[in-house]
Amino acid sequence: MPPLEDPLLPPTFHQCRFKINNSRRRFTMLFLWVFFFTASFLTFFTPNRSTSWHQTLRSSARIRRHNGISVLVTGAAGFIGSHVSIALKNRGDGVVGLDNFDQYYSPSLKKTRRDLLHLHGVFIVDGDINDHRLLTLLFSTVEFTHVMHLAAQVGVQYAVENPYAYVRSNIASLVTLLEQCKLADPQPAIVWASSGSVYGTQNKTPFSEMDRVDPPTTIYASTKKTGEEITHTYNRLYGLSITGLRFFTVYGPWGRPDMAYFSFTKRILQGKPITVYRGKNHVDLARDFIYIDDIVKGCVASLDTSGKSIGSGGLKNGSAPYRIFNLGNGSPVSVPALVTILEENLKMKVMKDVVDMCGNGDDSFAYVNISLAERELGYKPTTDLQTGLREFVKWYLWYYGKPCVQDRNV
């Protein structure tokens, strides 16, 4: 969403300036964290004479609960992927991650998420989904029952300068993955991340899965709409069970730095003004904000209810489920209201530069109907924006620290 994204990236650890009276406490926390991580990593993931890459992969994919599943999670070092991987692992499922740690935003945050996943016993393969030889190796080593495909090129503005990245990451890699799943025996069920952006600027609200989604208004939305058409074709031709999830504005701890709430928090703490865009006729932009924990529940429920793929080695043996679900909150909140909540949690005021959104931007009002997901998945968001942003701010201050500014009432 162009009006909600900020090109500024968060500071790294060495760029953060901490208060002197907090330095000893933070140093102690960091030391304990590093010690615990190092011990856990050496125990579970350092190859030795008896441990190979294949054994590590199989160990991570091992199912440890009755009727559990073994899941390949693509984009596992990403925001949603890391949370979903931990949730699956914590309940006893087998999980293997795959991520290429691209440069769209600072890879350091993704690598820290990877370290967190290692602490939970999830192994992440550093590789590209378009590498069909790597996929063949993964699928020949582990018999995955499910694939959670969350890897994608995200953002809207970035497509202006690099549209090829979206075609490669959101279309070509999807086809490469589907080809591998098609040939697997048995075939895994697939859940993948589409996007609420496919609804574009249609006047009808709330957005429903039954609505037409053309024409798309951005390159990002176009690639996601294309992905839905491609997955539908693979379901029909090859018997793959496929569920597409149309995510709306997901937020929370360990989130993406290019999102508005993230960049707003950074600039408020730095004492810098923020740009708040508004829609046509000076209408405030509104978004369907959904907290990460609620999204994870929807993702896991989609895996659990996905049904089975019915092909074998590319041969179709019947009809398999094909589903599309909206995963949002069902309660849009304006961007100015979001800023107010952040100011309250940070106990700081910010100068707002209000700008009219250009005509080629994203939709100005996102309101989603989630009744189908409620009925079919038992999906029920429980975290309001005030609670979710409070948890995000707590994480942000823990992770980045609070920079020193001369005037906290800017």
From TrEMBL:
Catalytic activity: UDP-alpha-D-glucuronate = UDP-alpha-D-galacturonate
Cellular location(s): Golgi apparatus, Golgi stack membrane
Designated name of the protein: UDP-glucuronate 4-epimerase
This protein's GO CC annotations: Golgi cisterna membrane
Span of the signal peptide: none
EC number: 5.1.3.6
InterPro entries: Epimerase_deHydtase, NAD(P)-bd_dom_sf
